[in-house]
Amino acid sequence: MGELQLAVRFTCLSIMNILYLYGQPLLPKMHYLQPFSVSQLDTLRYQATTIVAARLGRAEPPLQREVVEYLLDVDSHMWSMRRSKANFFRVMSLMSGAVAILRWLDEVGRWRNPVTTLLVHVLFVILLWYPELILPTVFLYMFLIGLWNYRLRPRRPPHMDTKLSWAEAAHADELDEEFDTFPTSKTQEVLRMRYDRLRSVAGRMQTVVGDLATQGERLQGVLSWRDPRATALFVAFCLVAAVVLYVTPARMVGLVVGLYVLRHPRFRSKLPSVPSNFFKRLPSKIDSLL
């Protein structure tokens, strides 16, 4: 069996009109002045799907309603293990650049490459002494990245990617679950197995959400006096920091902080830092949950 890909290319007579459209809203003005509610959007989407399915059902050869609904992503809000994996790895791929930058900064701070670390020191001092060069440097850097990536630009139009969609690595039961009707038409044994699998995935998500809530509550509890000693320490630190920052020039403070962050590993400790220990000891509402 082969694979048939259809590409439609749109051309324009004026490139200026196309560039002008990039700054225009996607929907008509009335949609933003009097927006629809979520229920109204669902109703309109259902009616549009019904109209398209009815017209294509009278075509020759006719298309079934299930095919039209699949093409229009009517069930995109339904649970699918395959789509969940695909979206998760899309997020991981999106964050890979930020993770790579953080790893590079960590290597710079640990002096893995002394030459690179010294160059970063020089660049940091230059930008600190001439802060008006920060934004031009950032935009120039993005301009150079864009020129560098021009040679790697896509040569062909995008198409359905089975690897990105995790269609090749999906199990038969996952595909059967995705194409199942709503309400389901499966037996109790199959539903019990899928329910247990869903509980396992939801449990991991619940743990991540709980950790995020815990960190946010600790940050919120710094000034809430729930822990009087911690709040008193933080308030005293804020007062001292305000006086020091008022007296000391901002460039000197930035220079000291930057050199402290980029200090040699010989002057580092393998134990967690004092601010990290202080933050982890702040109270949260996790102990109040049942």
From TrEMBL:
Keywords: Membrane, Repeat, Transmembrane, Transmembrane helix. The keyword Membrane applies. Residues 135-290 form the Multiple C2 domain. The chain crosses the membrane at residues 88-105, 117-150, 233-262. The keyword Membrane applies. This is Multiple C2 domain-containing protein. The lineage of its organism: Eukaryota, Viridiplantae, Streptophyta, Embryophyta, Tracheophyta.
